[in-house]
Amino acid sequence: MFLEVxxxxxxxxxxxxxxxxxxGVNLQLDYGESIAIMGPSGSGKTTLLMSIAGIMxxxxxxxxxxxxxxxxxxxxxxxxxxxxKMGIVFQFHYLLNDLNVLDNVVLPKIALGxxxxxxxNEASYLLNAVGLYSKAHLFPSNLSGGEKQKVALCRALxxxxxxxxxxEPTGNLDKNNARVVLDLMMRLVDELKTSLLLVTHDRDVARxxxxxxxxxxxxxxxxxx
Length: 225
What we know:
Elements: E1 3-14, E2 17-29, E3 34-38, H1 45-52, E4 60-65, E5 68-69, H2 75-85, E6 86-89, H3 101-111, H4 116-129, H5 145-157, E7 163-167, H6 175-192, E8 195-199, H7 203-206, E9 211-216, E10 219-222
Parallel strand pairs: 3-8, 3-9, 6-7, 7-8
Antiparallel strand pairs: 1-2, 1-4, 4-5, 9-10
Helix pairs in contact: 3-4, 3-5, 5-6
């Protein structure tokens, strides 16, 4: 199994009250598989995704990526693991406004130690795939919301990650742009043979995945739709 989440637990303090957000989450994701995770606002979907990414510390349980328990890694080792094997797309694009489109996309590739020539070639290929090659030298402020999210998608996929974590990737877009970005994401994921965990509140978005799970009351269950 590519990714295994075992009995994952995470709580937060709200004043003197303990909020148990994840109450023993179990999840398996195979190579090339896509799973959508739905649930009401505040149910812990983002917490689960960030715990899997090694960005957020969890209280108990295990996250195994190809048998490697990420909880045993140091901060720098987790960062390296994300660069090598993960891509993350958030609801907000988080592009760097002082860099143009091309330079935003190449950042993870260069951070991995690749040559600038290789990085720019790969970034150009991805930007062409999403129809933005002609805007490679523009700055984020010159792009529409949908275009910014396409650039964020290219940045997440430039290292050909084995795992893509997508947290409401179309949540800030209108319906038409959301469909375009979603279709592009699924096409590139299929092309790269990437496993996908997609968090969304939109059932139409969730249906692009092979399986839909619902996170509620700190637990995951199969969707009945």
